[in-house]
Every structure is written in structure tokens, then in C-alpha cells.
Amino acid sequence: MAYVHIYVLYILILGGIILSKLPYIHYHKDKNDLIRTYFLALIPLLLFGFYKNGIRLYGNQLISFVDMFIPLYFYLISLIVGYIVALIRGEDKKEFMLYSLILACSISMNSNVFIYPVILFAGLFVASYIKDKFRFNFVSLTRLFLILALLLSQYSYMNVAEKLDAFHYNLFDLFFGYSIGGIASSSLFFVILAFILLLFNRFYKKNISIVASLSFALILFLAFFITKDISYVEKVLSGSVYFAFVFVGADLAVSPNTNLGMILYGLVIGVFTALLALFLPIYEVPFISIFLVSLSIPLINKICDKKYLQ
After folding, report:
1. How far apart are CA 95 and CA 87, in angstroms?
2. Could you tell me if 241 and 282 are in contact, meaning their C-beta atoms sit under 8 angstroms apart?
């Protein structure tokens, strides 16, 4: 009988250990599922970016055959750098490869091809190290580091056709993605498709993206109605901002946990982005906003937790 008690005790201890690990297992299972969905959601954007900034330009004899593959170079080198950083830091390789690919989508075609991987490596490594001590959205901070790779070349998000004004676009063309922007982030149409795909994943924090996008668009539409400046409408139709909201702002780990917190977080990001967009380049402002507002996540969680307790 004594042996039975010992076996029961062993089972209880083992069960306790397993149960203590369940939240950890559940979180990583959720995260891996979401990472897979993110990769799938990026595919149409990556293909369109390659077409817009590579195939189409080559087909119109604006770039050489080799230059046609520059978008693919940025995609591939980013995946490699993300893998290496994760390997050195002992982090999840799929997660860091995803972050690197997201960053590659948002950068300019004019980024220095030699300096870019160096800055990406240093930015990811340093930002991911700091975020272990201070909770913030380190992907947005890395994206701000990457401006250096553009400044060392020429600060412009225009591809060759846009510099030459070779094509004439209407507002629908801008919505579809034929506008100035990141390599694979200019298309609002494909960002919406990606967002719809992400909605099917129950772990995606959709409230952040929705509220940030709506508040940003409403403020700029208001600016248009006041000033009649069509450039505000063009900014609203640019996919670059929404790309940042959907793929960077709604981070699974570094964002509020309650619905109210996510709504407040998205609202502040959207409003801040819209205000900055009145004065600064549209391609950088969402990342500035996400980084700065992410520093306030502990405060937002504290405020919203109190609301729920009342």
C-alpha cells in the first residue's frame, strides 16, 4: 500500500510540473501558429513588390535584367540576417526571420545593398537585446535604424519609373499599390487582403490594426476637407502606413492584453501617426509612432486593468 502512495505522489508531482508548463507551451503554440499566418499573409505583398519594382520596370526597359532581382535580394538577405541574429541570441529563428522579412518589405528600393544587411544585423541584435530589459516594440526601432542605409545612398522611396514620372496613375492605381512606398508595402489592396487572412487567426490582435487605421484615415480626411489638399487623400491610400499597423503594431507579445487596452493603444498610434504625417515622410512615421507608444504599454495595461476592476 505504501508503494501505491509513493506512485500517487510521483504522479501528482509530475502532473504539477506539466501543468506549470502549460501556459508556456500554450503561448509558444499560439505564437508559432500566428507566425505561420503572417508568412502566408506576406506572400501576395512580396510578389507584388517584385512585380512593381522589378519585373514591370525591366519589361519597360527602365532597369537591367540584374537590377530586376533587387527586391528578391532584399527579401533573401533579410531572412539570412534574421536567422543569424536568432542563432546568436538564442531566439526563435522563425520569429526573427519573419521580423526581418517584414522590415525588408517596408524599406526603400534605394537602400544601400551593402550597408543594409550590416545595419539590419546591428539593429536587430541591439534592439532585441535592449527589449529584454525594457519592454517596447523592437521591430519598429530596428526599422528606424534602417533609415541609415537609405541616407547613405539617397533619401528617396521612388523607384526608377516614379523618378522619371513614366506612368500616370489615378487614385485607384494608388490604392492598388502603384504609389511611392516600401519595396512590398505600397499596396493598400494587398495589405487589406493580408489583414483579412490574419483575421482567421484567433491570436491576431485585430483591434489594434483596426482602430489605428480608422483613426489615422479619419484625421487625414479631415485635414483634406479643411485644406482641400489632395496629398492627404494620397497618404490615406498609401499602403505603407497600414502595413506597419497590421504587421508591426499588432505584435502578439509587445502590445496590451485587454480589448480596452488594444483599442486605446491602436487609437494613440493612429492619432500620433496622422499628426506626424502632416510634417514628416509618411514612410517613417508609423514606425516612430509604434516605437514611442509601445513604451507606454505598462501604463496602458495598468489603466485598463483598473477599468476592468471597477
Report:
1. 11
2. yes
